[in-house]
């Protein structure tokens, strides 16, 4: 009789301690998430770092042209090394980025191997069925995670393509887990005049972008936390 | 502008971008549009038709009509734009800004068949600032008829300096 009681007590005690552990872990995580959300968008103190490793997410066509326009005026010594990522189906964008990096190397004063290039699987291609896209989404997220573990960027620059969403999500996770603190800068495409793109809307609403830029004054009125910066093109 | 048999060559360059836009190709080779172009002194019509399946009839202009020629893709679209007197383009931001930066008169034709048609936003916003004219395939003729090239405002290209300044300040870099 006593033995069974004892057993029940010890079981209850161990159950309690597991519960307590789960609850405290949840509380700690929630506090951490809230802290990360509070810290996002807060500027760094002066002279915080000499340079930042930078991830640049490229999209097709107009997106890449706009991104290169921004990169051409950024101080390269402050944003180094640079990692470029484009969708696996998009060969043009990485080629343009390589041409851009080569033109910098010609100007000298740029350290060797300061840039790297990678392609990323897309979760869903245009016209793909939703059934197969479940599997491809899993593959795409795993691939994004692998790339982010390797790169661990301190700065992420993106301007619209859907491929930036898993990367920014993982960056947020890294911040919560204390793996890497990164600052996300998002520039909405010049083609968006009245409405944000889905990627832009997600990053704005979830406050995942540290600084958010729009190229038309109409959009800034609708999304007051955004900076209006005029056309990049 | 080249001299070609005593008449100055004035090219209208049409570009559909990387996909297809047959409605635009059909619209530019319609009799109405060709007549209007010729009336306005254009001599050549050159069409980049992309993956479209509609091939217009080529014409060497021997009978004094508009010279019509086409091709699918080219890596040097900028050169074609540079040598054109008028550009008629799809609504992609790449083509639009490439043409505006080269200071060429531009009519943007919006593809109404695209599902997520946010691209007309850009063309309409730039039309409001008088940098270009905006049309649909079926209104291209009217747009051409009322077009006044002289009243277009030259586009001043922007750059990333304001974005760079804010990013630099955010990361704690001193101002230059």
Molecular structure report:
- The complex is a heterodimer of chains A (233) and B (176).
- With 233 residues, chain A is an alpha/beta fold.
- Chain A folds into two domains: 1-39; 51-228, Rossmann fold (3-Layer(aba) Sandwich).
- Chain A has helices at 2-39, 62-71, 91-106, 130-151, 164-177, 198-205, 217-222, and strands at 52-57, 79-87, 115-120, 155-158, 183-187, 211-214, 227-228.
- In chain A, strands 3-2-1-4-5-6-7 form a seven-stranded parallel sheet, with helices on both faces.
- In chain A, strand 2 (79-87), helix 3 (91-106) and strand 3 form a beta-alpha-beta unit.
- The termini of chain A are far apart.
- The model of chain A has no long low-confidence stretch (mean pLDDT 89).
- Chain B has 176 residues and is α/β, with parallel strands linked by helices.
- In chain B, 33% of the residues lie in helices and 17% in strands.
- Chain B is built from seven helices and eight strands.
- Chain B has helices at 22-28, 31-39, 77-82, 93-101, 119-128, 140-146, 161-170; strands spanning 3-4, 7-8, 11-15, 44-48, 67-71, 86-89, 106-109, 133-135.
- In chain B, strand 1 (3-4) and strand 2 (7-8) form a beta hairpin.
- Chains A and B meet through helix 2 and strand 5 of A and helix 4, helix 5 and helix 7 of B.
- Chain B: It comes from Thlaspi arvense.
- Chain B: Pfam families: Glyco_tran_28_C (PF04101).
- Chain B: GO terms for molecular function: hexosyltransferase activity.
- Chain B: Residues 11-164 form the Glycosyl transferase family 28 C-terminal domain.
């Amino acid at each position: 009789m006593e033995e069974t009681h004892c057993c029940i007590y010890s079981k209850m005690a161990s159950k309690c301690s597991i519960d307590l552990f789960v609850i405290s872990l949840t509380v700690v995580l929630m506090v951490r998430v809230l802290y990360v959300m509070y810290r996002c968008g807060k500027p760094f103190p002066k002279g915080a770092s000499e340079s930042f490793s930078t991830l640049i997410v490229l999209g097709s066509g107009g997106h890449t042209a706009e991104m290169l326009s921004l990169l051409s005026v950024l101080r390269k010594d402050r944003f180094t090394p640079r990692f470029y990522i484009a969708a696996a189906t998009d060969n043009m964008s990485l080629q343009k980025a390589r041409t851009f990096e080569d033109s910098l190397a010609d100007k000298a004063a740029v350290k060797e191997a300061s840039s790297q290039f990678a392609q990323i699987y897309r979760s869903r291609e245009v016209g793909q069925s939703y059934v197969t896209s479940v599997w491809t989404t899993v593959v795409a997220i795993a691939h994004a995670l692998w790339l982010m573990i390797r790169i661990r960027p301190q700065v992420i620059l993106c301007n619209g393509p859907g491929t930036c969403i898993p990367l920014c999500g993982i960056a947020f996770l890294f911040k919560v887990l204390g793996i890497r603190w990164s600052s996300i800068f998002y520039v909405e495409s010049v083609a968006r005049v009245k409405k944000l793109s889905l990627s832009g809307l997600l990053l704005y609403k979830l406050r995942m972008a540290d600084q958010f830029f729009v190229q038309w004054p109409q959009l800034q009125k609708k999304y007051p936390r955004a900076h209006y910066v005029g056309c990049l093109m | 502008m080249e001299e070609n048999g005593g008449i100055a060559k004035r090219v209208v360059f049409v570009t559909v971008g990387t996909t297809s836009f047959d409605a635009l190709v059909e619209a530019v080779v319609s009799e109405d549009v060709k007549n209007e172009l010729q009336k306005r002194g254009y001599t050549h019509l050159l069409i980049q038709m992309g993956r479209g399946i509609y091939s217009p009839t080529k014409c060497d202009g021997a009978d004094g009509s508009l010279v019509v020629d086409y091709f699918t893709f080219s890596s040097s679209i900028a050169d074609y734009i540079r040598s054109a007197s008028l550009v008629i383009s799809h609504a992609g931001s790449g083509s639009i800004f490439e043409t505006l930066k080269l200071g060429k008169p531009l009519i943007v034709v919006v593809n109404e068949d695209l599902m997520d048609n946010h691209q007309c936003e850009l063309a309409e916003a730039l039309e409001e600032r008088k940098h270009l004219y905006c049309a649909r395939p079926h209104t291209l003729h009217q747009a051409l008829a009322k077009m006044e090239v002289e009243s277009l405002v030259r586009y001043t290209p922007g750059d990333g300096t304001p974005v760079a300044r804010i990013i630099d300040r955010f990361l704690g870099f001193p101002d230059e």
